[in-house]
Design brief:
The complex is a heterodimer. By secondary structure, chain A is an all-alpha fold. The mean pLDDT of chain A is 92. Chain A is elongated and about 70 Å long. Chain A has a single domain, classed as MetI-like (MetI-like fold, Orthogonal Bundle), CATH 1.10.3720.10. In chain A, helix 8 (160-181) packs antiparallel against helix 10. Chain A has helices at residues 2-53, 61-82, 85-91, 93-100, 105-130, 134-142, 147-158, 160-181, 188-199, 203-231. Chain B is globular, with a radius of gyration of 19 Å. Chain B has helices at 44-51, 74-82, 99-109, 114-127, 143-155, 173-190, 201-207, 225-230, 235-242; strands at residues 2-13, 16-28, 33-37, 59-64, 67-68, 84-88, 161-165, 193-198, 210-215, 218-224. Chain B starts with a strand and ends in a 9-residue tail after the last helix. Chain B has a domain at 1-59 and 160-167 and 195-251: P-loop containing nucleotide triphosphate hydrolases (Rossmann fold, 3-Layer(aba) Sandwich). Classes of the chains: A mainly alpha, B alpha/beta. At the A-B interface, helix 6 and helix 7 of A face helix 2, strand 6 and helix 3 of B. The structure holds adenosine-5'-triphosphate and magnesium ion. The site of adenosine-5'-triphosphate has 13 residues of chain B, from strand 1, strand 2 and helix 1. The site of adenosine-5'-triphosphate (ATP) has 13 residues of chain B, from strand 1, strand 2 and helix 1.
């Protein structure tokens, strides 16, 4: 057993280590990019909805704009969510080529991962915001908050614990997606699993990649939950 | 002074328009404590929420110090709301912020300088008896303490009007008395006009000068508390007055 481990890791340890780093790099960078767009879309979904239901808003032009925006954002998000990632990956190849100049490897995979994660992130953010008790939003409105102040001083700070859980869920989901990207030469652990396990019948390499993926998911979920609990001032 | 004139509010529901306020008129004198009492569903919350336009009336007018407010929008609406404090049955404090930050909120959004905020928050927390709780979070406070923070927050920007929507309904009877005394004290010190909603006669008795009885979306009677309670005209007022009496004593 010891002999096996020594010889296996001498041969493949570096490969698996690099693959793990590549996976983490793809997943973390894509998540960060996805939040840059997904967060405002999620906030926009809630704000436009509230605007439509609030009693205090302008009739006419404002309402029509809010409804149009809400429908548009919802439509974009739903379209994005309904495309299976493996198909999005292939469909985006020309776009990926255009953006990063290659269709292979870590940099290329970040593009579809980001695009695929944006609608997912938008829905998660929307859900997190909806968890804020209506009374808190109402008190903030009654105090004379502008819409911007409502977002930056109430909505986002109040949903931080829930947003952190959402980030962990996004990272985990993207670990799964990034493994799919391995099928088209995307780099990372999925790439290794497919090249060695599928093309070269080296089952042990594949099993080790699976083990590492499982550990990554566990660690991210545990850290995410702990961090969310630690920052949440509702339970002290 | 708050003048509510022929206020009507209809909500659009799936089964057509629902009238929550029907031709409601009342005047709240500057500096007074005006109670609005009624059973659940009478329209009390809808009425008080109209005063800072959390609900926009369907018809009628609301004048504050002579100026109609019902068409205010945008920056003017924000300015109106910053001149009116509000507290709620469920306190509604920002859960992720300290007591200090909660009380500071109305000042912070108005761009008040940091040191002016700090001294005002200190002053307010002393007033509500929580000067040792600056750095506590709402979850670490009792209901009564949370309502004190909410009162400090509502008064931070020195509003001329304080709206209270069932401020003691989630509190025990002793804490209720303390919160009502605090509101009374604040009214005496600042001359803030208080509109207070409740379904308990005892609350009205303890601190209100005037009372309006609301039922089924309409005003049934109103006037100085002593007069209305000495000679109640509406059946609902008598029911509220004698709800706690033994069965035989009820008229
Ligand atoms: N947004 C709304 N849409 C439809 N109906 C509403 C809405 N808000 C209130 N209502 C209805 O208007 C009526 C009056 O509601 P309101 O909240 O003002 O009552 P209330 O006197 O404050 O009652 P409670 O003591 O239970 O708080 C109720 O029948 C309620 O169902
Ligand atoms: Mg109510």
């Amino acid at each position: 057993m010891i002999d096996y481990l020594t010889s296996f890791f001498t041969a493949y340890g570096g490969l698996l280590f690099d693959g793990t780093l590549d996976t983490l790099r793809m997943v973390f960078i894509s998540t960060a990019f996805a939040y840059v767009l997904g967060l405002p879309i999620g906030v926009g979904l809630v704000l436009t909805e509230q605007y439509l239901h609030a009693d205090t808003t302008t009739p006419g032009a404002g309402r029509a704009t809010a409804r149009a925006l809400h429908t548009l954002l919802g439509f974009i998000v739903n379209v994005g969510r309904s495309i299976p990632f493996i198909i999005l990956l292939i469909a985006l190849l020309p776009f990926t080529q255009f953006v990063v100049g290659t269709r292979l490897g870590v940099r290329a995979t970040i593009v579809p991962l980001t695009v695929g994660a944006i609608p997912f992130v938008a829905r998660l953010v929307e859900q997190s915001i909806r968890e804020i008790p209506a009374g808190i939003m109402e008190a903030a409105t009654a105090m004379g908050s502008t819409r911007w102040q409502l977002v930056t001083r109430v909505i986002l700070p109040e949903s931080v614990p829930s947003l952190i859980m959402g980030v962990a869920l996004t990272l985990i989901t993207l670990i799964g997606y990034s493994a799919m990207a391995g099928a088209v030469g995307g780099g990372g652990l999925g790439d290794i699993a497919i090249r060695y396990g599928y093309h070269r019948y080296q089952a042990d390499v594949m099993l080790w990649t699976i083990a590492i993926l499982v550990i990554l998911v566990q660690v991210i979920q545990t850290l995410g939950s702990q961090l969310a609990r630690r920052v949440d001032k509702r339970r002290l | 002074m708050i003048e509510i004139q022929h206020l009507t509010k209809q909500f659009a529901t799936r089964r057509g328009p629902f009238t929550a306020l029907d031709d409601v008129s009342l005047t709240v004198a500057a500096g007074s404590i005006h109670g609005v009492i009624g059973l659940s569903g009478a329209g009390k919350s809808t009425l008080i929420r109209s005063i800072n336009l959390l609900e926009r009336p369907t018809a009628g007018d609301i004048r504050i110090n002579g100026r109609s407010i019902i068409d205010l929008r945008g920056a003017e609406l924000i300015r109106l709301r910053r001149s009116i404090g509000m507290i709620f049955q469920s306190f509604n404090l920002l859960s992720q912020r300290t007591v200090h930050a909660n009380v500071a909120y109305p000042l912070a959004i108005a761009g008040t300088p940091r040191d002016a905020i700090d001294s005002r928050v200190n002053e307010l927390l002393r007033l509500v008896g929580l000067e040792d709780k600056h750095d506590a979070y709402p979850a670490q406070l009792s209901g009564g303490q949370q309502q004190r923070v909410a009162i400090a927050r509502a008064m931070a920007a020195r509003p001329g009007i304080l709206l209270c929507d069932e401020p003691t309904s989630a509190l025990d009877i002793v804490t209720t008395g303390q919160i009502l005394d605090l509101l009374s004290e604040i009214n005496r010190l600042t001359r803030v006009t208080i509109v207070l909603i409740t379904h308990e006669i005892a609350v009205i008795r303890r601190i209100c000068n005037h009372v309006t009885v609301l039922d089924g979306s309409r005003v049934l009677e109103q006037g100085p508390v002593a007069e209305v309670f000495k000679n109640p005209q509406a059946a609902i007022t008598r029911q509220l007055l004698f709800a706690h009496e033994p069965r035989e004593a009820a008229p």
